[in-house]
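ugh ok fine here u go
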Amino acid sequence: MPSRPVSCRSGRAHLTTPDGRRISYLDFGPAAGRPLLALHGHLGEGAEFAELSAALGADGWRVVAPDQRGHGDSDRARRYDRDGYLGDLRLLLAHLGLDRHPLPVLGHSLGAVNGYHLAAASGPRVVSALVNIDGPADLPVVTPAPLSFLSGLPYHAPTRAELLAAAGALAPLLESGLRPYGDGWRLGCHPEDMVDSDTRLLGDHWSRWLGSDCPALLLHGTASSVLPTAQAREMAARRPRTTLVELDTDHWVHLREPEESAEAVLRFLRAVFGRG
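structure:
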């Protein structure tokens, strides 16, 4: 995964769920802007949308970017299925008072799948538009799950250097998410949580992708190892009101090609909602 910016123009905040977990989120200004929910993928966090949020903020958008359960500064959870993820999102929207009017939802990979599941389950009263960044409608069920290469990694170590050394060849993938933890350092996600979440993500999501009819942008990296181009084109062809934009990059479209991604997202938002 490419490195991601971690600075933001607003403070980090959190809410506490009924079962006592903390959900952390970033609220990128302007405070009076039109709200948009941004959802990262596996191994990611809300801070990866800092650069995109700056571009959208200049056009009047307020981007709310949570660390989804088990990621970043949000607490670990017992469940990593769709009901769990979507329950957290509904709590966050209610906490911020953003459940009163529909808003666009942007997501990458896992976040994109959660976004279109939310749209299918809640309808136009919650989700007014979708921006899907390389999130498939069908992921082959394989054993072990693709993220099983994380199994066995230590979650924490006394020092940052020791944790990176223990990660070995995976250090470049994980180092941007490292955090202080007690008297030491920890990974941005627990390896076993990510394997569990990834396993539960595998399978056929076509009914959920086709389960809403709000305007949608599918932003696809043609070198993606997660979403084949043939599937991306089928997703756009089968779902009404869906625009496909292909960029010559890998699965991490918004981080590899930030300017082109921001331009595509802004063009889509302006077409649907007008300028701020």
